[in-house]
């Protein structure tokens, strides 16, 4: 079982000091320095963030009010005007960075491209003008459904430049999932590609867009822009569809960045919660820019000659904050790789590190566990000596995987930053600072300066060391989400009312359970709601259940996470069938494909177990705790006295 348990981590006593050589050159050089920053930020958060905003970012106009906090709604840098695309591009052009590599891109088939800051700026300006010509205005929403190619970042930055709000939908989502998100966001235009390379095959992105938009299902969409990437046959709908390269041709590269209000909406990114419908997480301009800028700078300790590589997809928050905005705002060289380890090239990540001399590498525990399985010989056959810092994100990392990463990839010389955060938080919240914080394998260590994290009970009381509780944040921070798009009530309910507000103080509840040890180190235990984490992807169990019951054969479905050695958790579905259907392997297969069609391959159930009835309480609630135990093959422990029909349990044990 790869999810850490309290027992296993209580035994974890290893401590790794930052290497002296690393600390000497780091932005934050010692634990004392961290502590000083932390204390200063705690004493006066507004001054702390305002000083950094002044020093680190460009403003067209300075703000009047640092923080306007009407719980749970925050506004940062009110009255200020700025543009994140300006901060990511224009301001570097008057420095030596003008001709520095901004984006290094490696395609899966081995093609590659490097864009300097001047070149990236030019492409972004041109594409911003293309958007304008197609009638996209400040405040409009633009859907981006793309493979991992430079045009994805260019499209995001171009939207930001003219004040359009982007909503990136991960290219692995199905046409149905794409359609729901485009409808919710009322997208006016969609940017896509004919296809993307994925594990030696082609993902037919444009075909999916066609299905999503068929029968005028998303009436707000007027135009679709298509990048030619894989060159397979696709349909181009006259008037609606245009090739990116046709429209980009000959367009002016003069497009000044629009001065945006600090609180203008920068993007919407959909994420799973414990109810069926994904939430549109809203991030705004200035606070997000500052927060991603500072976290990238201090956590990844960016130095001017570094090549920095984050392996996430731009379709997730990690790609937004730590491939595109954070690194570019810092004037860094950010690497983007289209491929994934695959049968024809399982060592491709190590090839990329060697080829570009990557210095900072940020990936997910699920990837690390997959590397462990593939074997040490792959990384050992490459020269990885350029690496100086490693990071992980997305799920708790088990200490064995941490140790392997440290030893085999980091050569026992690279600090590891285990970064805890969420789509909602905009940037990393709990993490080591690599030159300052001694690390313990499996712990995300301590909060970033300015973040007041705590572990509490349901009443909001801080709980004792080493006891499990709810992970909360006590003071607003610049990168926090502002609302759920179109549903402020849901924002309040989901994040701020779960833990009782105390003395008027609202606590942000992340949905995670955690423990804090005697050194003040946080150990994140995983979700405590009906969200599962499959290979670092967040999935609402209700979403998968809704997908299953939309199939005519399914009467009822209950989905739980099953511990998985590589993925962390896998989707396990209990299903009862409509009367006229009989369980069969064929039907199980069909149901799995149905979920793929409704949501995407990331949600494909690893196992479907048919059952005549679900274990329910007398009030009719499905007892998920029992199902979780059953799925993981454990004995059903704890109280089962509330179970309505005990024979259901026996039947479930043996399958239907
Ligand atoms: C989990 C990804 C433990 C957690 C940036 C959180 C982690 C959810 C860590 C957010 C970590 C992320 N240790 N758990 N270092 N990082 N998580 O929105 O459960 O895709 O709530 O954001 O991932 O997932 P999301």
Structure description:
By secondary structure, this protein is an alpha/beta fold. The protein has 21 helices and 30 strands. The protein has a seven-stranded mixed sheet, sandwiched between helices. A five-stranded parallel sheet has the order 7-6-8-11-12, with helices on both faces. A four-stranded antiparallel sheet has the order 21-22-24-25. A hairpin with a 5-residue loop joins strand 4 and strand 5. The two termini are 25 Å apart. The mean pLDDT is 95. It binds 5'-O-[(S)-ethoxy(hydroxy)phosphoryl]adenosine. The site of 5'-O-[(S)-ethoxy(hydroxy)phosphoryl]adenosine has 23 residues, from helix 12, strand 20, strand 24 and strand 25.
The kinds of small molecule bound in this structure are: 5'-O-[(S)-ethoxy(hydroxy)phosphoryl]adenosine
Q: So how many helices? A: 21
Task: Outline the low-pLDDT stretches.
Answer: none
How are the strands of the largest sheet arranged? 5-4-17-16-18-19-20
Instruction: Determine the N-to-C terminus distance.
Output: 25 Å
- Class by alpha and beta content: alpha/beta
Major sheet attributes: 7 strands, mixed
| Strand portion | 15-25%
What is the total tally of β strands?
Answer: 30
Give the integer mean of the pLDDT values.
95
The 3D shape can be described as globular
Query: What is the oligomeric state here?
Result: single chain
Rg over C-alpha atoms, rounded to the nearest angstrom: 24 Å
How helix-rich are the residues, as a percent range? 25-40%
């Amino acid at each position: 079982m790869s999810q850490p348990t309290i027992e296993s981590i209580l035994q974890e006593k290893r401590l790794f000091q930052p290497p002296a050589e690393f600390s000497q050159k780091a932005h934050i050089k010692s634990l004392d320095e961290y502590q000083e920053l932390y204390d200063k930020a705690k004493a006066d958060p507004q001054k702390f963030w305002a000083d950094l905003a002044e020093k680190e970012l460009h403003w067209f106009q300075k703000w009047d009010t640092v923080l306007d906090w009407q719980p749970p709604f925050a506004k940062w840098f009110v009255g200020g005007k700025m543009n994140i695309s300006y901060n990511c591009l224009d301001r570097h052009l008057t420095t030596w960075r003008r001709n520095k590599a901004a984006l290094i891109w490696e395609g899966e088939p081995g093609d590659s491209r490097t864009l300097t800051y001047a070149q990236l700026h030019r492409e972004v300006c041109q594409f911003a003008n293309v958007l304008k010509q197609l009638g996209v205005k400040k405040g409009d929403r633009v859907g981006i459904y793309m493979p991992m190619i430079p045009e994805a970042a260019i499209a995001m930055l171009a939207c930001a430049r003219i004040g359009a709000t982007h909503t990136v939908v991960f290219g692995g989502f199905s046409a149905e999932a794409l359609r729901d998100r485009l409808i919710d966001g009322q997208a006016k235009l969609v940017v896509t590609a004919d296809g993307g390379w994925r594990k030696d095959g082609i993902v037919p992105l444009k075909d999916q867009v066609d299905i999503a938009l068929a029968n005028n299902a998303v009436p707000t969409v007027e135009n679709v822009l298509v990048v030619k990437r894989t060159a397979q046959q696709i349909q181009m709908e006259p008037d609606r569809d245009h090739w990116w390269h046709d429209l980009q041709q000959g367009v002016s590269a003069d497009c000044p960045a629009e001065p945006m209000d600090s609180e203008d909406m920068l993007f919407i990114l959909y994420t799973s919660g414990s109810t069926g419908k994904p939430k549109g997480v809203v991030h705004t301009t200035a606070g997000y820019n500052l927060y991603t800028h500072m976290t990238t700078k201090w956590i990844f300790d960016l130095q001017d000659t570094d090549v920095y590589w984050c392996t996430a997809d731009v379709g997730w928050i990690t790609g937004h904050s730590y491939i595109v905005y954070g690194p570019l705002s810092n004037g860094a060289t950010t690497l983007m790789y289209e491929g994934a380890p695959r049968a024809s090239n399982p060592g491709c990540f190590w090839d990329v590190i060697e080829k570009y001399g990557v210095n900072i590498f940020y990936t997910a525990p699920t990837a690390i566990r997959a590397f462990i399985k593939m074997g040490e010989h792959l990384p050992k056959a490459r020269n990885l000596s350029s690496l100086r810092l490693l990071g992980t994100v997305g799920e708790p990392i088990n200490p064995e995987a941490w140790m392997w990463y440290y030893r085999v990839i980091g050569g026992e010389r690279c600090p590891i930053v285990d970064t805890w955060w969420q789509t909602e938080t905009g940037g990393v919240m709990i993490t080591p600072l690599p030159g300052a914080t001694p690390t313990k394998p499996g712990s995300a260590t301590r909060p970033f300066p300015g973040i007041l994290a705590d572990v509490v009970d349901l009443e909001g009381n801080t709980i004792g060391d080493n006891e499990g509780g709810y992970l909360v944040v006590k003071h607003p921070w610049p990168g926090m989400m502002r609302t759920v798009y179109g549903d402020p009530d849901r924002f309040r309910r989901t994040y701020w009312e779960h833990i009782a507000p105390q003395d008027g103080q609202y606590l942000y509840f992340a949905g995670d359970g955690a423990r804090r040890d005697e050194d003040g180190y946080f150990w994140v235990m995983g979700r405590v709601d009906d969200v599962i984490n499959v290979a670092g992807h967040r999935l609402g169990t209700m979403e998968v259940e809704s997908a299953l019951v939309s199939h005519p054969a399914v009467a009822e479905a209950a989905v739980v996470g099953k511990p998985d050695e590589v993925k962390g958790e896998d989707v396990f579905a209990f299903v009862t069938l409509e009367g006229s259907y009989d369980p069969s392997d064929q039907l199980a297969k069909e149901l799995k494909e149905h979920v793929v069609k409704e949501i995407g391959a990331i949600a494909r159930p690893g196992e479907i177990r048919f059952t005549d009835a679900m274990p329910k309480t007398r009030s009719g609630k499905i007892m998920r705790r029992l199902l979780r135990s059953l799925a993981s093959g454990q004995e059903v422990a704890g109280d089962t006295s509330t179970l309505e029909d005990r024979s259901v349990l026996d039947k479930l044990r043996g399958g239907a």
